[in-house]
Amino acid sequence: MSGILFVIAAISFAVFQIRVNMAADQTGPEIIMEEEQITVSVGADEAELLAGIRAVDERDGDVSASLIVESLSNFTADNTRLLTFAASDADGHIVKGTREIVYEDYQPPRFTLQAPLRFQTGTADLLAVLGAEDVLDGDLSSKIKISSSYSFSANEPGDYMMEFSVVNSAGDVSRLPVTVTVYSPSEAFDAPVIELSEYLIYLSPGEEFDPWDYVERITLGGAVFSREGARLRLETAGETEEDGEDGGWEEVDSGLSLTSIDSSDVRIRSGVDRQTPGVYEITYQFTQDGYGTGMVRLVVVVSD
Asked: Could you give the CA distance from residue 251 to residue 240 in angstroms, rounded to a whole number?
């Protein structure tokens, strides 16, 4: 008798389970997408990335509020990434979908230079003057790497070819092949110091520029020549009780035979091809009797 009761109970439980399963929602939401590819700004938020996407469930109705961005791939083509998103219903069923995201205003990571790539012997940190910025991730300076393909000695004066690189969260890599100069303080003592307003610039293909415009200041010993219009003019040496009538400039006896420097006095060597994307260097040299020669470089990146 007990055996019969057990069989009846087992059959009843099985029937109950079948009915529960038949009544339960067995499918996830349906994804309805107006566009499989959209164009957005690099600063687009989640709502913009999911614009035009709905999720509808057979039992729960519209469950679009459950839509979330799951991931963004590395670039699959120019300025294009693959968005993976997901939606769920009340029973916990999850469905996923994908769409292409095209950035209308993307540009690769860009480097910055606070000072020239000239270092005294013994300098260990070549990255101290170098930074990187990105439209997706912001400051990428901490992620800059030095290529191991080039040799470098911090204790041997000379010019070294180096390459710096940085990658953003979308897998886009920017590279900066440049010349790094290591110099001996004794050899550079009292040599002219050329200061530029910038040490790295980015140009669009075909964009015009004048290398001389970036020369901001030249120092010879204690004499400083600073930018005034199209030339560098000798500044006042030492403190004065009042400024000169021309706005702070005053002729002084510096012991030099010149009171101003113009573009003809500075040797500028430029191999920049403004039509061809790439990384170029402009070399500035200034020589003065009794002081030797000063040199500095401007890095020019012609972007794609």
From this structure: 12
Please tell me whether residue 245 adopts helix, strand or coil conformation: coil
CB 268 within 8 A of CB 297: no
Q: Is 299 exposed, middle or buried (0-12, 13-18, 19+ CB in 10 A)?
A: buried
Closest CA to 174 of 130, 112, 129, 109: 109
**Residues 72/81, Cβ–Cβ less than 8 Å:** yes
Answer yes or no: pTM beyond 0.85: no
The rounded distance, in Å, linking the Cα atoms of 99 and 171 is 19
Give the number of other CB atoms < 10 A from CB of residue 289: 7
Residue 168, C-beta contacts closer than 8 angstroms, at least 6 positions apart: 108, 109, 134, 136, 137, 140
Cα dihedral 25/28/29/31 (nearest 10): -160
> pLDDT tens-digit profile of 154-194?
999 999 999 999 999 999 999 999 999 999 988 878 899 99
Q: Which residues lie below 8 Å from residue 208, measured CB to CB, with a gap of 6+?
A: 274
β-partners of residue 72 are 83
Tokens linked to 185: 């303080």
